[in-house]
Amino acid sequence: MQTTLAREITLKGAGVHAAVEATLTLKPALANTGIVFVRSFADQAPRKAAVSRTSVQATDLATVLGDRSGALVSTVEHLLAAFHGLAIDNAVVEIDGPEVPILDGSASQFVAAIDAAGVTEVRARRKFLKVLKPVRVENGASFGELLPYDAGFRLEVEIEFAHDAIGRQRFAATMSPAVFRRELAGARTFGFLKDVERLRSAGYALGAALENTVCLDDGGVMNEGGLRFTDEFVRHKALDAVGDLALSGLPLLARYRSFRGGHKLNYQVVDALFSDRSAYAVVEAPARPVRDTVGADMGVSAPVPVFAPEV
């Protein structure tokens, strides 16, 4: 069945780029609402943007959503990763600032808040976006691709940085709420000390600090306490991919592979998928799913098509 939050959640904090304080309220929503952001303003009526590829305004250093009037809210990827990773289909996100709070730089505090509030089913079967054939995007040495995969959502992310603390790292797993909590939710965003002045002069990273960002200089990791995972860098890139791929609007039945990817590449792959009507179908979980190891965790088994490209 589709899911939503059991009760309302409120979080507060500053954004990593704009450094502006914002209050974030996550609310339960009806079936088939999806995830919807509602931005409030002091001098105008609220505006909203549903989470979909058509709402994307920018993907340079964060994923930015908006409407026809322009951008509404940025850095949505960690919150979307928490929703997608915990298999939450419907929620309304009210925010009174331009950017989702960065909190500790990961999705862990969003996950903790959602777990404390609880998740409940709604009276509608869950729908999935099933990838039917490979879709690939290449940007120089980088690539991202979605491949058919019937056992849920599999993530295979590889990164390469010319820094001794990172080098080449790879993360692979078939996602489930348990796997997301354990393997990805705590992985923090990261950056390099040498880039700070340039980013801030361009209006970015104004709220970045060691409390919310893993920072590297020539000697290695600057944060007291070091890393949460030995390969925290690739795990955070995988977390970002979970959030960015939520722009598909539905949970995926697919295998996602990327090399040297980021927000822009993740979005381009979603856009390429929807640009080919033969590459996907919307399928629905059966009324009485057969529970197996994968199905019990993912909430899907032998999905039944309700919408296909030829319809």
Automatic annotation (TrEMBL):
Catalysed transformations (reactions): a UDP-3-O-[(3R)-3-hydroxyacyl]-N-acetyl-alpha-D-glucosamine + H2O = a UDP-3-O-[(3R)-3-hydroxyacyl]-alpha-D-glucosamine + acetate
Entry GO MF terms: metal ion binding; UDP-3-O-acyl-N-acetylglucosamine deacetylase activity
Enzyme class: hydrolase
One of the GO biological process terms: lipid A biosynthetic process
Keywords assigned by UniProt, alphabetized: Hydrolase, Lipid A biosynthesis, Lipid biosynthesis, Lipid metabolism, Metal-binding, Zinc
Annotated Pfam families: LpxC
Residues given in the record as Zn(2+) binding sites: 78, 236, 240
GO cellular component annotations of the record: membrane
Pathway(s) annotated for this protein in UniProt: Glycolipid biosynthesis; lipid IV(A) biosynthesis; lipid IV(A) from (3R)-3-hydroxytetradecanoyl-[acyl-carrier-protein] and UDP-N-acetyl-alpha-D-glucosamine: step 2/6
Active-site residues (renumbered): 263 (proton donor)
EC number: 3.5.1.108
Domain of life: Bacteria
Essential cofactor(s): Zn(2+)
InterPro entries in the cross-refs: Ribosomal_Su5_D2-typ_SF, UDP-acyl_GlcNac_deAcase, UDP-acyl_GlcNac_deAcase_C, UDP-acyl_N-AcGlcN_deAcase_N
Function: Catalyzes the hydrolysis of UDP-3-O-myristoyl-N-acetylglucosamine to form UDP-3-O-myristoylglucosamine and acetate, the committed step in lipid A biosynthesis.
Family: Belongs to the LpxC family.
Protein name as it appears in the record: UDP-3-O-acyl-N-acetylglucosamine deacetylase
